[in-house]
Each structure stands twice: as C-alpha cells, then as structure tokens.
Amino acid sequence: MKRPVSSLALVAFLLAACAPRAAMPALSFASGGSMNTTTPATTVLSLIRDGLEKNDAAVVRRLVAPEYRQHNPMAEDGRAGLLGLLRTLPEPMTYDVRRVLQDGELVVVHSRLKLAGADFAAFDLFRVRGEQVVEHWDVLQPWQERTVSGRSQVDGPTEVTDLGRTEANRALVRDFLNEVLIGGQGSRVTDFISTQSYWQHNPNVGDGLAGFGAAMEGMAKAGVTMTYTRIHRLVAEGNFVFSLSEGQFGGQHVAFGDLFRLQDGKIVEHWDAIQEVPASSRNANGVF
C-alpha cells in the first residue's frame, strides 16, 4: 500500500511548486486549429464568452447538454441546474482566461475568475461530446494580490509547445504525483523538478529551491500538514499537464488543482489552487 505524504518537507515542496479585468490574451489551439474550427476547446470558450459572461440562456442551452453532469457542489445537476445557478448571480461571472488545454474530449481552462463580487484563481475542467459540454469540475482559490515571488497566481507562459512530448510529460507528472506526493519518496524530488529554473505561482512561496526551504520552515512553525491520496484526472497537452487530485490540507478534505509546465523532461513551473470539499452538495456527483 502506498504511504500518503504528510511530511513538512513535501508540503513545502508542493507549495513551492506551485486588477480590473484584462483583455483576454491570444490563446494557442495546438490540438484544435483556430477559433474558426469547432473543437472541444472552441466549444468551451464559446460557452464562457457568449454564454456565461453574457448570462445568455439561449447560448447555454445550445452548448450545454440537458444531461450535463455537474461536480461543483454549489450547483444542481443538469443544464437546468446551471441555468438556475446563473439566475442567482448578482452579476455575470467574468473570466480572464490565460491557458486552455485540450486532451481528447477534456478541456482545462486556467483563469482569474470574478464570481459574485469575489476574485479567484480558477481551474475549470470540461468534458465535451459532439459540440456540447456534458460534464464540469472546478477548483477555485481566493485571489491574492501580493505574492512572495512577485508573480501572480495565473501569469506566465501560455503557449502550448512540444506536442510530441505530451505522453512523456503526462507520465512524468503522474510518476511525480504517485511516487513523491502520494508515495512519500521525497528524496526523488529532483528526478522530476528542475534544479536550474523553477518558477512558482503559489502566492506564499518564493522561487526555486530557496523558496522550498523557506516554505518548509514556515510550514513547520505553523504545524500545517498535507496529504495527497488520489489522482482523479490528468490532462496533458504538449508542455502543460493538469492534475485534479484529492487529499487533506490543514486537517480539511480538499481538492488540489495543479498545473505543471515542463521543459526538457523536467517540471519548470507550477500553478495551483486548493479548495475545501464541503460536507454537503447540491448534486449527487461529488467534487471529483
């Protein structure tokens, strides 16, 4: 049986790995051509831009399947549940989309999200079949303006490259999660993480191995523990790999959303969001 990680060293390592609405940056569609071509990624972006941000029920009905499976615990299941949630919002949600990954029928959107007057670093994961969204997961973490590294929770490189390394990069991240974060092999960290260049977007940690050391000390003083127990989803496209995982953080049951950028067979950059899993949900699908 694999041993969950709860050591302060690994807690700090993960943390280290990891304005008004800006105009949406140019996005690359490495797997799906351009916005003139209908792909899972373009379907999701159309839903966000034309449906959710404009609170347009007709667009939502066209792009979301009636049997839409919802994993956000604040929303009821089905397309009707999503439309009901939108009707309760005091103003339409807005997305500052930074990255879009497409992996078969799965699409990850990484953004700064404004929802009900609050800002979040957000990962949204969608499943698309045909030209309709049929399933949705998300992990949201409150936005912090001040960060140790000076980088925000969503800035940094956006271009999808190295498509030929997609499966190798997926395997590397899977092994990192299983062997280091779940399996407890902390001594293998540098087998996966670059010791030369490692950029961090967790707001509480500085860059590189020095940031790791400072985080370890801080976590030890705070008495905070973390455990990764299971990987639920791995979405990969070229140099980016996203994972949706389950575990414990500070004694709470949480969802971990982690986005890794890889270069030359090593992880060189990391973004994350951590969200508590509530005891009850408005749907029966579970967060994962």
3D architecture notes:
By secondary structure, this protein is of the alpha+beta class. Helices cover 27% and strands 34% of the residues. The chain has seven helices and ten strands. It has helices at residues 8-17, 40-52, 57-63, 78-88, 166-182, 189-192, 208-222; strands at 64-70, 94-103, 106-115, 118-129, 132-142, 199-200, 226-237, 240-249, 252-263, 266-276. Strands 1-5-4-3-2 form a five-stranded mixed sheet. A hairpin with a 2-residue loop joins strand 4 (118-129) and strand 5 (132-142). 42% of the residues are buried. Residues 1-26 have low confidence and may be disordered.
Order of adjacent strands in the largest pleated sheet: 1-5-4-3-2
The CATH topology of the largest domain is given as: Nuclear Transport Factor 2, Chain: A
- Count the domains: 2
- Counting H and I runs of at least 4 residues, what is the number of helices? 7
End-to-end separation in angstroms reads: 22 Å
Strand content: 25-35%
CATH class of the largest domain: Alpha Beta
Q: Bin the helical content.
A: 25-40%
| Uncertain ranges | 1-26
Radius of gyration of CA atoms, rounded to a whole number: 18 Å
Proper CATH architecture of the largest domain: Roll
| Helix/strand order | HHHEHEEEEHHEHEEEE
Q: Name the structural class.
A: alpha+beta
For the biggest sheet, the summary is: 5 strands, mixed
InterPro entries: Cyclase_SnoaL-like, NTF2-like_dom_sf, SnoaL-like
Protein name: Putative SnoaL-like aldol condensation-catalyzing enzyme
GO biological process, one term: polyketide metabolic process
Signal peptide: 1-22
